[in-house]
Amino acid sequence: MDQNNGGIIGKINTPTTSVASGVWSLDSQFEAQSGSIWPLAFPRVTLANSCRFDDGSSDRLNKTLGTPTNNYKWTYSFWTKRGLLGSEDAITGAINNSQNKSIILFRTDDQLEVMDLQSDSYVMQKKTNRKFRDVSAWYHIVISSDATLSSPATKIYVNGVEETSFATSNEYSQNQANLWNSALANHIGASDSSSRFYDGYLTEFIFVDGQALTPTSFGIFNTVSNIWEPRPYAGTYGNNGFKLNFTDSSNLGDDTSGNGNDFTVNNLTSVDQSTDTCSNNFATWNPLHPGATLFTNCVFADGNLEFESNETGYVVYPIAKSTIGVSSGKWYAEFKPLETNTLIGISDGISNENFIGGSTSNGVAYQNDGQKRVGNSESSYGDSYTTNDIIGVAMDLDNNRVFFSKNGTFQDSGDPTSSTGAITIPTSSTGVFHFATLDSSSSGTSKIAANFGSPAFSISSGNADANGHGNFEYAVPSGYFALCTKNLAEFG
Questions:
Q1: Residue 106: is its pLDDT beyond 60?
Q2: Domain ranges of the chain
Q3: Mean pLDDT to the nearest integer, 9-13
Q4: Out of 63, 171, 405, 412, which residue is the most buried by the measure of CB atoms under 10 Å away?
Q5: Are 3-270 and 290-491 equal in CATH topology?
């Protein structure tokens, strides 16, 4: 993962709960002192939740703002982890009509653009040369503007660093009133009520009315970990300001700034509250893996937790792999087949052949007919499974073993805790392993939802690992952990 883009946040001793502004926990203080960065104005803050947006479900939040404190100055600050690439994904927008609107979005070329269109003409437009294509990482984005200046400035910052290279750069005229902070319909997760829906994750979504702020109001560079981290915002918000941290699953539009600027929820449910944040980054499916990108009918959705293959007539099987790979430790994940023709297992290497069905296959899989697949060999194993069953995978890389469960029962009398009934990973398998799935039919449809600890499907019971991370349908085997960065810091 790209640590500079926020892939790994925090350290093993990072507090798991937020602390009040200006108050240090003891472990944070000791770490800062050892790194000669004590004192700091604020401690780090752990973000507990994000909101997962699925463009195919038209997810969004909306609110019509009121009279602004200042119609010339504003700041957005938010953390995001992208889902889809190569499409127009709007993070937020304020709209009056098609000729008068302001939008922050990723374009089809994956460049970030912020614009203000009035009377069908751009009064401000800035588009980065930088492309944002790391789907495994969290980005902290701050956009601020001040049109009162003699040379108005709209600035874009990513992970604390100002963007200076632009494909397009047009500024407001001095004292040009903007649409961002007007009494208009505002949307989060879309540009408007019907288009450019976002696919990915957002957290700590803040809008400040009447101030053009810098990233240090919202984040801080930790010189011990070399990571840009969130810090609690301690300033004022202005009349139209708000803060959405998505901690209330029953009201994902809840404004926690104190302004009461709550947003209306559209097509989002409690399932869309995620524990995948910049403070603890969970694995997803990787849409950039060649096992999927080789094909035209492989689709990722719901924050890259769903994978669907509709390919026909292929020789090499379409596969999806987790964004995070590991070479040691014990790891657990769950998968829900949504269509038939789905194999579930683990895979080494980066080639699309390093799973099931290729001449160099080193993977292990549990097939929907109850067979197991070890390398290129197929044999009897356990019960068949069908749509909506929950398949658990316990991967023990310290002892070269893997176990599979169906709806909480490990197959072939397997027991990950005692290591009995294990499938041995082929001795030829080396390097980094990923959780993986494969479309096993050249004529049917394969579709599967993954749960690496932050599920996109409903969980009835709720089971965390021994570190308190993850949300699984069935109990996590003793000694096994969810695939997330906090666990990687300790066991990876």
A1: yes
A2: 3-270, 290-491
A3: 33
A4: 405
A5: yes
pLDDT at 425: 87
Q: What is the pLDDT of residue 135?
A: 95
For the domain 290-491, what is the CATH superfamily, name and number?
A: SPRY domain (2.60.120.920)
Instruction: Tell me what pLDDT residue 19 has.
Output: 36
Question: Distance between CA atoms of 116 and 41, rounded to whole angstroms?
Answer: 35
**Is the predicted pLDDT of residue 143 greater than 70, yes or no?**
yes
Percent of the chain with pLDDT over 70: 85
How far apart are alpha carbons 239 and 216 in whole angstroms? 22
Higher-scoring residue by pLDDT: 41, 276: 276
Which of the four pLDDT bands, split at 50, 70 and 90, describes residue 413?
very high
109: phi then psi, degrees, rounded to nearest 5: -90, 5
312: confidence class by pLDDT, cuts 50, 70, 90: low
Report the candidate in 196, 237, 195 with the shortest Cα–Cα distance to residue 88: 196
Q: Is residue 40's pLDDT more than 60?
A: no
SS3 for the chain is: CCHHHCCCCCCCCCCCCCCCCCCCCHHHHHHHHHCCCCCCCCCCCCCCCEEEECHHHCCEEEEECCCCCCCCEEEEEEEEEECCCCCCEEEEEEEEECCEEEEEEECCCCEEEEEEEECCEEEEEEEEEEECCCCCCCEEEEEEEECCCCCCEEEEEECCEECCCEEEEECCCCCCCCCCCCCCEEEECCCCCCCCCCCEEEEEEEEEECCCCCHHHCEEEECCCCEEEECCCCCCCCCCCEEECCCCCCCCCCCCCCCCCCCEEECCCHHHEECCECCECECCECCCCHHHHCCCCEEEECCCCEEEECCCCCCCCCEEEECCCECCCEEEEEEEECCCCEEEEEEECCCCCCCCCCCCCCCEEECCCCEEEECCEEEECCCCCCCCCCEEEEEECCCCEEEEEECCEEHHHCECCCCECCEECCCCCCCCEEEEEEECCCCCCEEEEEECCCCCCCCCCCECCCCCCCCECCCCCCCCECCEHHHHHHHC
CATH class entry, domain 3-270: mainly beta
> Is residue 428 exposed (0-12), middle (13-18) or buried (19+ Cβ within 10 Å)?
exposed
Residues 6 or more apart in contact with residue 137 via CB below 8 angstroms: 1, 2, 5, 6, 7, 81, 281
Say yes or no to pLDDT of 9 above 60. no
Tell me the per-residue pLDDT of 245-276, one tens digit each, with 9 for 90 and over.
999 999 999 999 999 999 999 999 999 999 99
Residue 361 has pLDDT above 90, yes or no: no
